[in-house]
Write a structure and sequence with these properties.
Helices cover about 15% and strands about 35% of the residues. The protein is built from five helices and 16 strands. The chain folds into two domains: about 90 residues, Beta Barrel (Elongation Factor Tu (Ef-tu), domain 3), CATH 2.40.30.10; about 110 residues, Rossmann fold. By secondary structure, it is of the alpha/beta class. It is globular.
Length: about 260
């Protein structure tokens, strides 16, 4: 596991993907540490007096040649909104890499990656990092409506995509757990991974457990410090109360008291 660092990054891209999600690319002057799907960074929000704590964001993309990392930032409050308004050329201070990532699949695995909203970011990172053939990776992405979906066609080479929307305006209508791929083909997969709203992850976890399929989820508890000091992100597990920022954010669902 790479040593945690505090360093400044230069914003080289900050653009909207839809009405509520932004793509932000950050460049470092130094070589990047090893970063893995499921890990996150904590960002100090500048020029925002009402935001005292750093904000955690899952890592979306890493380019070691250019020393850049990319994030998908969903506007949820004052901190994330401020982040999307900062111009190119400005500097952000990050703590990284934080947390434990997903267990990478074996070459023989067939995997289902389930993402909800901006939770698709670590799923896409995992698809790219997995090293699996396209036919071994299925991505099931859910959102409220077509306008909330983030479609990144350049990732089509890493897996087959399936979409669900609550209102049926894109892909199949309903939650991801109501999608035909999930309802009728879950047993085809050897590993299931999920990141998104808590209710979605609990539903995915329950079905995977019922079919005895390996399943990991990335929790989105409030993580203020990233070092396990502030105790904001405690999660009850079969191993006791654990800090999500240090023992997670990725957990095997068998270890969670869901």
């Amino acid at each position: 596991m790479s040593k945690k660092e505090v360093r400044d990054f230069l914003i080289i891209e900050n653009r909207p993907l839809n009405n509520s999600n932004f793509f932000i690319k950050l460049k470092s002057n130094e070589n990047l540490p090893d970063l893995f799907p499921g890990q996150f960074v904590n960002i100090d929000i500048p020029e925002q007096n009402e935001v005292f704590l750093r904000r955690p964001f899952s890592i979306f993309e890493v380019d070691y040649n250019d020393n850049t990392i990319s994030l998908i930032v969903k506007i949820l409050g004052k901190g994330s909104k401020k982040l999307t308004e900062i111009g190119i050329g400005k500097t952000l201070n990050l703590v990284l890499p934080l947390g434990k990532g997903f267990t990478l699949p074996e070459k023989s695995d067939k995997v289902l990656l389930v993402g909800g909203g901006s939770g698709m970011a670590p799923m896409l990172f995992l698809a790219k990092k997995s090293g699996l053939l396209k036919g071994q990776v299925h991505l099931l992405i859910g959102a409220r409506a077509h306008s909330d979906h983030i479609v990144l066609n350049e990732y089509a080479e890493y897996g087959h995509f399936f979409y669900a929307t609550d209102d049926g305006t894109f892909g199949e209508k309903g939650y991801v757990t109501q999608h035909s791929v999930f309802k009728h083909s879950l047993s085809d997969y050897t590993k299931v991974y999920a990141c998104g709203p808590l209710g979605m992850m609990k539903a995915v976890a329950a079905e995977a457990k019922s079919q005895n399929i390996f399943c990991e989820v990335s929790l989105e508890n409030l993580m203020a410090c990233g070092f396990g000091v502030c105790l904001c992100c405690i999660e009850p597990t079969t191993k006791g109360n654990l800090c999500v920022c240090t023992e997670g954010p990725v957990f095997n669902v068998n270890d969670l008291k869901w």
